[in-house]
Design brief:
The protein is of the alpha/beta class. Helices cover about 35% and strands about 15% of the residues. Strands 3-2-1-4-5-7-6 form a 7-stranded mixed β-sheet, with helices on both faces. It binds S-adenosylmethionine (SAM). S-adenosylmethionine binds next to strand 2 and helix 11. One of its GO terms (cellular component) is nucleus.
Amino acid sequence: MSETKPDPQKIPQNQPSNTKLTNKQNRNADTKRKLYRETMENVRKQVRIESPTPPPQQQSDSIASTNESTPDLMELPRKRFYRQRAHSNPFSDHRLDYPTSPSTMDWSTIYPGTSLAHNRKVEIADIGCGFGGLMIDLGPQFPDSLILGMEIRVQVTQYVEDRIMALRKLHESDPGYKYDNIGVIRGNAMKFLPNFFHKSQLSKMFFCFPDPHFKQRKHKARIITNTLLSEYAYVLKEGGVIYTITDVEDLHNWMVQHLDQHPLFERLSKEWESQDKCVEIMYNSTEEGQKVERNKGSKFVACFKRLPNPDDCE
Ligand SMILES: C[S@@+](CC[C@H](N)C(=O)[O-])C[C@H]1O[C@@H](n2cnc3c(N)ncnc32)[C@H](O)[C@@H]1O
């Protein structure tokens, strides 16, 4: 049977076109996303303010019903409600909250429900944590350490916050691990790290699949540069480790070259990498790493130890 093109003259004028339908569907989807995010923002505020965990009655008050766009706290958040552009310019003047100094930061809002925030400082940082997969796998391995993800994109940060909140709720009555040592903040790691962390505070910093900024004129936006390495050396303790992984060989070479040239870092051996549990977790658990895996790409790892300060710098 031969196909004939419909005569545009014969299409009834009042029939909605595909474009109109799509626009309506888009509007509905936008409304759902907005409603979902507003509800989650209220829940987040409640959890931050009324920590440790809001009583069940208050939670059900804040969630009117359980249709598609009204979240259930026990459910992990859905990524499609947190859509955001793939990149955020680290040099833009984002409206970011940051403490004037590390001692003015109130960590109990990031880690509610645990006494850890009162007697321990953050020790492990995942810089540009994306959707938070690394922290979620690292958390149970270091239950006595506070782990922080720093992420520049608003909605990605909110997704991670909601993911952690749901995990805490899901594991609330577990006798063991409860995800209360992992947390996330929105921040630009290229600008404000010393506002969050004291000198020599961190023992591990992760840079997993950082944005590659391929063009030469954009290299200055890369998260590893000489200047930034000095800042990372300041917040890392002696013997602390910088972990890097990427699927972009050119970026791997760039990071290795800059770290090799920096007087306060020394590369750790492949043998060390093969015995370190964090390398294995970093290799397998980040969302970006899993994407690379699905696309059968390569992953390049390099880890560097923070050396002692030379005597004349003390
Ligand atoms: C390619 S993604 C990788 C995410 C995650 N590490 C992973 O492996 O799945 C890079 C992430 O770094 C974030 N990012 C880029 N520059 C940043 C900065 N200056 N401070 C904090 N986060 C940043 C981006 O928003 C993005 O989520």
